[in-house]
Predict the 3D structure of the following.
Amino acid sequence: MSRQTAIDFVSRRSSPLTDEERIDHLFERGRTLFNRGEYFDAHEEWEEMWSEFNLRDRLFIQGLIQVTVSFYHLATGNLRGSRNLMKRAIDKLTVRGPSEGRWDSPQRGIDSSRFIEEIERCAGEISGIDEPADFDWNLVPQLQPAEQAEGEPL
């Protein structure tokens, strides 16, 4: 690498992130934390993204935040709070999306259709339990990358 190329590279790296890069970073950081079961921290990343930017998929992100807080409430023994947030999340993810109320896959590069179906199963489980300790945490899905259709960018 030439000296000028190295200087240009360092200069580019030290410049602030664009809004789109920051949004992508916050989303991916939240996704990683969610997949690790660190629900409060995932919520914080997505909340920053949701509150600071005018997102085209604002309701989808808000639904993810509410799912995440629902799991946090459940993990801390607040079944009522978990049910409330999950009900609101299901509304955002299955009733208020742009495609007959739903969010098509991919959404931010994740398999949103599968994720939402699995969250609906979790919502049913949360509604049917008597104690937070009765919840089967194995039902909680991971936010997986969408399968790329041939010829389609993610």
